[in-house]
Amino acid sequence: MRDRSGNLTIRIDPAWVDLAQEFRRKPFGGHTPALQELLAVMRTTPIEGRYFLWLSKPHSEWTLAKMSDTRPLKPILVGPTFTSLEEAEWHVFKLRWESMTGQKLAIA
Amino acid sequence: MVAVMGYADRRSVRVGEPIQFKVSLDGSPSYRATVVRLLSAQTFPQPHAPEFRFDAMPCPFNGEHRGQHHPIPAGSYAEIPAHPKLTRLSSCTLAAFIWPTTPAKGAQAIMGNAEGPAGIGLVIDGESRLALTVGGQTYALPRKLRPKRWSFVAASVDAAAGTALVYAREVELFQFDALGPLQQRFDRVPRPSPSERPFRLGAQSDGPKAIRHYNGKIERPRVLGRALSYSDLERLALAGPTGPAHVDAIADWDFSRDISSEVVRDLSPNALWGTTVNLPTRAVFGSNWKAERHDWRAIPEQYGAIHFHDDDICDCLWPTAHELTIPDSWKSGTYALRLEAGDSEFWVPFFVRPKKGQAKARCAFLVPTCTYAAYSNFRSRVEGRWSELYHGRVTVLDGTDFLMEEYPDLGSSTYDPHSDGSLTLYSSMMRPVTNYRPTGRVYKFCQDMFFIAWLEQAKIDYEVVTDDDLHDEGVSAISDYACIFTGSHPEYYTTEMMDAVETFLRDGGRFMYLGGNGFYWRTAYHPTLPGVVEVRRAGQGFLASNVEGESNMSFTGEVAGTWLRVGRPPNLLCGVGMVTQGFDACTGYKRSKASHDPRAAFIFEGVKEEIVGDFGVLMGGAAGYEIDRHDINLGSPRHALLLASSFNHTNVYDISVPAFTDLVPKANEEALDPVRADIVFFETQGGGAVFSVGSIAWSGSLSWNNYDNNIERITRNVLKRFIDPKPFQMPEGA
């Protein structure tokens, strides 16, 4: 369900560690419906302030970045820099988990 | 910040013809220009992706150049050249029906020739109020205009008495709470002083520049040669926007005429015609629209409004920095002007065709420039809320993507909203385009370079033709070739292009549709402006839909929407039609029994595997991104061979499943047709044939294993047979 601003109204439960483990194993594609729902929440936050990856070397190196909190959007490089998209995806997942549950994920 | 940007006056140029390049530079005194032949794009690291290759071409202007900044003159308006009838207004009335979308966005000009103390104007002041501006003074009504409400607005000036009357009345047809008439009289109002500026509708002059752009619709703007009274204005308001010119009309612009053009026609005897600038949206309904019909051609009098936007941009109008006449020795192919300044790099691709009548290759790559235009400056990929969700991954962006943020006047694509929230319906290539380049996201142009890399590596003799050519020249653009093949995503097609490909096939041509979500949206090119397309997403349940009731193209009058919706499904042309999309993972195809049919033997010659394309540099497979399937109910030919279908797509693809036209209740999950891409082959009467792969990701598998793989083999097998003049025979019983 979404509210009138388009925000998903379901909340992420910090007990859903199994979903985090599933994502850790396979960040791209083929998720269970429960993980897909969780990702839908994480991936549809307002664009202002949202994480994205800055292409720091063509198709080989990506630096974690955030959109500015106001428009026009500006890239704010926050790091670290990754050489694997899977690792970058997992890093963003952990940051969002902590921000949405208030708890750090106890998975490496 | 150093930023170099450019664009060309055309996308397609023949050997011997000129092409002009426009360049703007910020933050650096000079830039480097190099014309290159592109042999591949910057995609993924080796070993399975082609290396980024391009050759510098001998060109007189290759080298360092002094550069300068050129503005991007965004914002639309209509302009009537200065004329004594308008430059020396005395007692007069300015009036129009308006539907402002952002009245609270600051001062906006509705109509007039005011500049400083000169001239006169009807405006929205900085506090959302309708106002008269004359003699450098502003006289506002004590009521705010409401957004998206039709009002009749007017200001009359009695120069002899030194008085003015400002008037507004909401004239909504379907609302219960329309605000009644309100007038305000002002004394000691200065007489309008002469203004040599053009008369503008939707913007105000600041020297030659246009400022104070108005967001919203204007309908039937008029200048009358006397100060109308309150009762006169009431009569005009209640008479609506139709009818003959007023007896006192100095000018009376009727936007329901010449809707497909840039012309603004004056009904008055003075014939003070004007032109629109930066393509404000036409074929939008007016204050009198009754929701009875959607075709503006049938009831133009209900489509007499123009929707102006402060971010419309059609042509940057930069001066030509470099001109190149394509030398006779250059091969047909993909080229680009590469611009470099400090860390800034910008590419301006273009396509070179042989001289007319001198095509030598048997096959041609039909470059989907119409689709490139529809997507040009795809702002939602940077700013959009949903992009990450349906791509199934964190968005990757680079400095070129952010040029749209640094330079908001670069405008938007047909996927993006205007600054006032209305959907962008027109998109132009006559401006720097940040996503038309051989770098960045591997999609559309960048991805299509996989085909070029393959053709070059395989030493296949090919030439190029663009959608622009196909639209302009019809089937003659491709009739020199035995076979044409598409890019990865030929999504946007005009009627002329559909007709040309269909005629080519009826004449025995061979067509390889090597992409996905093709022939999907009916599109229109502007009748006179090059590189400008119109898309109206009418009747669509997903993606941004335009306003219902504004569902016919302004450029052509045709009913808009998907080709499926308008009654000509892509399945008729290529045997498959779009099903869904997902960008998180791709997969392979499983061959069907039909793939072993003797009719398909040439396709699978040398292919032993039953699973094909389960590899690739685009998320791991040849089937994915946007996918199409065979469906007889939607027009796929009954004699078509369904050769293979993809399988195991992820549930990101489910997000778009409403695209299914035959979706049934999920009573029995196993009975549902799965999400799939289909490979289809069929012969045509006349000796031609069609081969379709139904997947954008196909091209990403060609280079796998140093081009030694079954996708490359299948593609090459089909091309080899398709350039063979031996006619195809329709199967018995077909």
Strand content of chain A: 15-25%
Distance between the terminal alpha carbons of chain A, to the nearest Å?
31 Å
Share in helix of chain B: 10-25%
Briefly note the structural class of the backbone of chain B: mainly beta
Structural class of chain A: alpha+beta
Instruction: Figure out the total of helices of chain A.
Output: 3
Whole-angstrom Rg of chain B: 28 Å
Radius of gyration of chain A: 14 Å
How many DSSP-defined strands of chain B?
43
Estimate the mean pLDDT confidence of chain B: 95
The second-level CATH architecture of the largest domain in chain B is Sandwich
Which strand order does the major sheet of chain A show?
Answer: 1-2-3
**Could you list the spans of chain A in which at least 5 consecutive residues all have pLDDT below 50?**
none
**Largest sheet, strands/sense/barrel of chain B:** 16 strands, antiparallel
The main β sheet of chain A shows up as: 3 strands, antiparallel
Low-pLDDT parts of chain B are: 657-671
What assembly state would you assign to the polypeptide chains in this entry?
heterodimer
H/I helix tally of chain B: 12
CATH topology term of the largest domain in chain B: Jelly Rolls
How many separate domains make up the residues of chain B?
Answer: 3
Mean pLDDT of chain A: 89
What would the keywords be for this entry?
heterodimer, A: 108 residues, 3-stranded antiparallel β-sheet, B: 734 residues, mainly beta, Immunoglobulin-like, Rossmann fold, 3 domains, 16-stranded antiparallel β-sheet, 12 helices, elongated
Short description:
The complex is a heterodimer of chains A (108) and B (734). Chain A is of the alpha+beta class and 108 residues long.
How would you explain this protein's 3D organization?
The complex is a heterodimer of chains A (108) and B (734). Chain A is of the alpha+beta class. Chain A has helices at residues 17-25, 33-42, 85-101, and strands spanning 51-57, 61-67, 75-82. Chain A is globular, with a radius of gyration of 14 Å. By secondary structure, chain B is mostly beta strands. Chain B has a 16-stranded antiparallel β-sheet that branches. In chain B, helix 8 packs across helix 9. Chain B is elongated. Residues 657-671 of chain B have low confidence and may be disordered. At the A-B interface, helix 2, strand 1 and helix 3 of A face strand 29 of B. Strand 1 (51-57) of chain A pairs parallel with strand 29 of chain B, so a sheet runs across the interface.
